[in-house]
Amino acid sequence: MFRFIAVIMSGAIALTACSSSTDSNSGVQSAPDLNTVRMITHESFVLSPSFVEDLLEQGIDLEITSTGDAGTLTASAILAAGQPTADLLFGIDNTLALRATDENVFEAYTSPELASALPQFIQDTQGGLLTPIDFGDVCINIDDTWFAQEGTSVPANLEQLPEVANLLVVQDPATSSPGLAFLLATVARFGDEWPSYWEALRDGGVAVAGSWTDAYYTQFTPSGGDRPLVVSYATSPAAEIVFAEDASVSEPSTSVLPDSCYRQVEYAGVLAGAENSAGAQAVIDAMLSRKVQEDIPLNMFVYPVRADATLPEVFSDFTPVIANSTSLPPAQVSEQLASLLDTWGTVMNR
Amino acid sequence: MGNGDEPLSGTLASHLPRSLKRLWVIPAVLLLVFLVYPLIRLTATAWTADTVNALLASTLWQVVLLASVQAMLSVGLSLLIGIPIARVLFTYQFLGRGFILALVTIPFVLPTVVVALGFRSLFGDLIPNGLLLVVIAHAYINIAVVVRLVGAQWSTLDRRMEVTAATLGAGPMRIFSTITLPALRNSIVLASAVVFIFSFSSLGIVVVLGDGSGTRTLEQVLLRSTSVLLDFPTALAAAILQLIVVGLVFVISARVSRHEPRTKIILERARVRGPQAAFVVTATCLVAVTLVLAPIASIFWASISSSGGLTTGWWSGLSDFDNARIGSPLEALGRSVGLALFTSVIAAILGGAIAIAVMSRKAIVATLALIPLGVSAVTLGLGILLAFSRGSLDLRGTGALIPITHALIAVPIVVAMATPSLRTVDPRRYFVALSLGAGPLRAWWTAFGTVFSGVMLAAGGLAAAVSLGEFGAATLLSRTDSPTVPVQIARLLSKPGESAFATAAVLSVILVVMTMSLLLVVDRIASRRVFT
Question: Whole-prediction pTM value?
Answer without folding.
Answer: 0.86
